[in-house]
Amino acid sequence: MNDALPDRLRRQDTRLDSYVDRYAARTHGMTASAIRALFSVANRPEVVSLAGGMPNIADLPLDVVGATLADLVVSNGRQAMQYGSGQGEPMIREAICEVMRLEGISAHPDDVTVTVGSQQALDLVTRIFCDPGDVVLCEAPSYVGALGVFRAFQCEVAHVAMDEQGLNPAALREAITALRAAGKTIKFLYTIPNFHNPAGVTQPAERRMELLAIAEEADLLVVEDNPYGLLGFDAEPTPAMRSLNEDRVVYLGSFSKTFAPGFRVGWVLAPHAVREKLVLAQESATLCPPVFSQFAIASYLANHDWRGQIKIFSEMYRERRDAMMAGLVDHMPPGTTWTTPAGGFFVWVTLPPGLDSHAMLARAVTARVAYVPGTAFYADGFGSRHMRLSYCFPTPARIIEGTRRLGEVLQYEITVNETFGTGLEDGHSYGAGERSPLRVYEAPGANQA
Amino acid sequence: MTEPQFARGAAPVDPPAARSATSERNFGGTVLVLSGGLSHERDVSLRSGRRVAQALRSRGTEVIESDVDSSLVPRLSALGSCVVFPVLHGEAGEDGALREVLALLGVPFVGSIASACRVAFDKSIATTVVADSGIRTPRQVALPHEIFRELGAQALVRALGDQIGFPMMVKPSRGGSALGVSLVERPEDLPSAMVGAYAYGAVAVVEEFIAGTEVTVAVIDRGGAFGATPGPAALPAVEIRPDSGVYDYAARYTAGATRFLCPAEVADDVASACSELALQVHEVLGLRDISRTDLIITPDGEPVFLEVNVAPGMTETSAVPLAIEAAGWSLGKMCVDLVSAAAARVTVAPALQAAP
Fold first, then answer.
1. Among A44, A62, A130, A242, which residue's beta carbon has the most beta carbons within 10 A?
2. Cα B283 to the center of its chain, rounded Å
3. How many CB pairs under 8 A join A and B?
4. Model confidence, pTM
5. Residues of A in contact with B185 (CB under 8 A)
6. Cβ–Cβ contacts within 10 Å for residue B267, how many?
């Protein structure tokens, strides 16, 4: 506590951050945001949060997991709690290959690098491939956490339109041509083929082949992010892009949704040369990924019917997806459309013209329901006419209640927009110098309603 | 009018020798710091609350931190005697609702009483009351969404442009942290600014934009007891210079994004005028213990009232803690003094206690 009397005449001149002149250029974009602040309300139990993408692990048999962990510590604790290999422990890499086989991938454990969740896989892949200013092609919309990584490495994100079958091949061709004509270096295409976050759509096998053919033709590297692939509701999993092309695809996987996110174990499967770089990058980032978590997951996989557990998870998510669909049909005002996910956690909603999901979030929070505004999933400010709803966590009854509240919010917002004439076909009255961005992207969500 | 005690450097600084002993001796109870709640400013409130709790603990005070939910009332009665320090921003915390409940329960608390908060929190009402007392305020129009609907938005929007002029400020009438606030420079941007403000509440205020130096002045009354100077005192004005030019949410809560000068870089007489204005606002609105008045100083040196806060931000990037330090106080000591004063009040005025 400052007990000394200060010099009263001296003026304090402060930015309240004495390190402000020391930060790297890439740090300057890290600012407080009102939207992020509103999410702090969303975590309260009074609010139905359709915002977060938290896996629902209520169905995990904790007694089995607990016994497995106890046994691990007692029988092999000295190894499990020691430093390990930078590439990841051999037995988990073998198990990972077995998991990937379910989606048609045949891989050798040598080509797997274990990461701290697949989020760190994204970080490592971007780190070894991208210089500032390099272009990464992403779906429009794309995973917010990936956009954050690309921004951190000062990449330029170019969004590519989607349709109900995921990334649109014609738009991809166009983007590659236009960017290269403008002298840009495209480092890779980042895509989420299964149960897309946030768009909720899935690329059929033929679409994957088409996209890979374009990548082949344009000599483009593909980063396939697949955290939800095994959480399909209906058919067998669609073959992973990596199963169709070994040399051009870097594949990211995760145990966060098929087991539990707290262990923070994901992986990268990459061509041999790339894997070498990834291991070196991993060593400099973490020395080694969490060894105890790897042992824990390996024990779980070895001693528990993990395939059966994934089925239990999928059924639970399917029930929630059904509740979400029913709620949307009952409560969304006319002019609203959405995707029907066949797996995963998310529904992508397109609002009636004129509504701005970003501006509307405050009203939703007052009405005790939360979602993620579409703008979070674009690097270019687009997305105000969209929102992501997640059904993974709340109970089906709460999901339906959430859609009811959301319907009222939309209805009121439509009234306000009608009053002010802001609901014109353009969708938004844009400020000085802003272009109306409705042009290119759109697609997912041409549905029932 | 009270003399602005600090502008001339005559702050009632705690005598260093007596400092650690005085108020702590007078307040040995538990303080319940309330933060969070369900308002749009929950996140800011949680940060403010943590800082206040930490400051109180640093002076040896026993602190319990609590959110505002259905467990609050049972918790209060379980505690028996305590003083509540509400550090709640936005609705429920600042609109008087929660303070009404505290008074109803006979729990002493730091800060203004409910009826004063109701007036101060609503920009459309507070501005009118303040203007009536002779203080300059921006020309302001307060309108609920429905009136646009009933009378037709086009005509009203045009009238607003004619009467208020551009640029203008559009704000929700209730709320803080610049949420839902827009600076509107062109008529065609007004409708979307109105829609943005209505997302935060049913009434929006449209104000003349006044260019000038942005300052904020805290008024604190540490109570007459325990050796502090009695009565409200204005702290040195804090001048706010956001790098982006606009003191919006990001400029407020991103450390480093705004430059603060304390005391403000203004002439002595202007500084005095700001202090006087803040004290007058505090008095006219019947505020108690602590308030923060935001002002703009016009290029010719006249301070203009913008708004007043009954639960000013106490975060790491907030102005009030900065002003407290500039005045030679410590945040911890000030918080203890406010709590002690609140504790002393309960024996004097048991507002709503049940008759025997």
1. A242
2. 14
3. 151
4. 0.89
5. 432
6. 11
